[in-house]
Amino acid sequence: MNHSEINRGRNVIYNFLSKSLWDIPDSNYMSMFEDLHLYIFELLNNSDNEDLRRAGETIMIFRKDNMLQEEKSQDEVILDLSKEYTRLFYLGVHSVPVCESAYLSPMKAYMQEPWEEVKKVYAENKFMPENKGNKPEDHISFELLFMSFLSQKASIEAEQNEYSELTYIYQKQQTFMEEHLLKWVDELCEKILSICVKENSLYAGIALFLRGYLHEDYKFLRDMTL
């Protein structure tokens, strides 16, 4: 098993999922989407996980109906996605919270105990991401970016044959999943899917991708830390 290559892939996927839910998409995001679409489709379509297969089908339909339409410019695609993102996460009647505290804190409010906990974990691991939007650190995109950050470190340790350190990083990721991501992401994804009505919704595909990938990656981490 090539752990360096595996973790480069994990780094890419977590980074992609993080950016997909960070904010209204821009041209940089669309370029990343196009650069990665073949890799993503191969991963999703070859999986035994139902969520991942459905994600592949949904995202493929989105790309065919939007990115591959000659009469539709990239600016128009971005505008449509911006409207959907805003409806889902900002202004909709049933807008979806994207921070852990809104799901797990007793008050169901932002910047509560889970927010304090993840900030402590980030500090312990010297994870200091740029935060231009001043979003809470328990925002889903930050938590996914933290997984990407650790996967990148794991890839480096594997290249240097530092397998004890590699296992330690896997243990950190497993713990972070158990104490944070896996406690609330299923509910987040279900809320997104309940609002997305179009079969070609990119965000429905991202929600399925996120839910399926987290559970499959958790299995991987559990196997690696036995």
Q: What's the shape?
A: globular
Structural class: mainly alpha
For this structure, what is the CATH class?
Mainly Alpha
The helix tally amounts to 9
CATH topology: the name is TorD-like
Arithmetic mean pLDDT: 95
Give the helices and strands as they follow along the chain. Answer: HHHHHHHHH
Strand content: under 5%
Supply the number of structural domains. Answer: 1
Largest sheet: none
Count of β-strands: 0
Descriptive report:
The chain has 226 residues and is mainly α. The two termini are 16 Å apart. It is globular and about 55 Å long. The mean pLDDT is 95. It has 9 helices and no strands.
In short:
With 226 residues, this protein is an all-alpha fold. Helices cover 74% and strands 0% of the residues. The protein has one domain (3-224): TorD-like, CATH 1.10.3480.
Task: Based on the model shown, name its key terms.
single chain; 226 residues; mainly alpha; TorD-like; 74% helix; globular
Write the layout of secondary structure elements.
Blueprint: H1 3-22, H2 27-45, H3 50-67, H4 74-91, H5 101-104, H6 113-124, H7 140-159, H8 163-195, H9 202-224
Helix pairs in contact: 1-2, 1-7, 2-3, 3-9, 7-8, 8-9
